[in-house]
């Protein structure tokens, strides 16, 4: 598709994303982190189990541990209770023929026992219990290495660590591990009209929402983000800010100044300081997206409208940042939903409309527009919980038609 403001053809969103992701490689360098510091970080090397899990035989239920050889399956049997095994306080004796022990969930099962019966299926009889003839044998004993054997992989390189990962690592006695260093990111807004919150608005001024939006999107343990403030519509100031930021950061993100207006200098300055890999894509909102490099720093010039900032970050910037952080490829989760209202769209560009996703008691998904779809309206964005993804060739959606949606914040 051709941009009416330029003879240069616009890239499709898919081609633009391929070009961006292909250009970036994971950052080098790692650091040690304790498990308490590691949530959300990316493993820099494989971690293997230093011991089997479980590392001793233990009971899966409260009940009695016994020897299956003491039962013949034809009649009830009476077993003397020889002692007890508690979690953290094992039975110290030896289980002999005709004996059992009281046992509790997680407690060590004696070597001589191969079965545990739930306490409700054992009848007390003085210092003994009576088990029915049909009691299940060789049940409710967790064997050594049943979950993981010694040397099994606990966590692979490139795995973003979840709470479950931390629990698994802790269960194997792992205290700390190597994680990828954070991606160093600088971001700032451009525009003479931008005013800091807490300051009085001048005529024609607006509050700078984009830095707060980006700051929220960059709140991630894998990123170390620096807010560099606002740069006015001035070539020299913009060039100086980019030149200062590039040596110390892996990524620079700006908002505004990437369009074709007389005061939009991003592409011009980027071409002078570094290299432009792409500029403008066939996506709505978010057509004026610049991507390139300044020295070793990757550069993303996002549009000025806040909804376009959110969309281009999600679709173009976030996959690149995840790859830089060492996570490999990441794609937003897409599901099918019934659109309950008609949607307007002109063919030509891949479009991400803001929507409200719901689910009924039968598990079916439904979506409706979150409000007006203009890219400067954050109110509709704040009320929404998903993007409605409309292909480039789509000319609108009828009510009760199925569409693809991307719930906010969910990637695969």
Automatic annotation (TrEMBL):
This is Molybdopterin molybdenumtransferase. It comes from Methylomicrobium album BG8. One of its GO terms (molecular function) is molybdopterin molybdotransferase activity. It is an enzyme of class 2 (transferase). Pathway: Cofactor biosynthesis; molybdopterin biosynthesis. Belongs to the MoeA family. It comes from the Bacteria. GO terms for cellular component: cytosol.
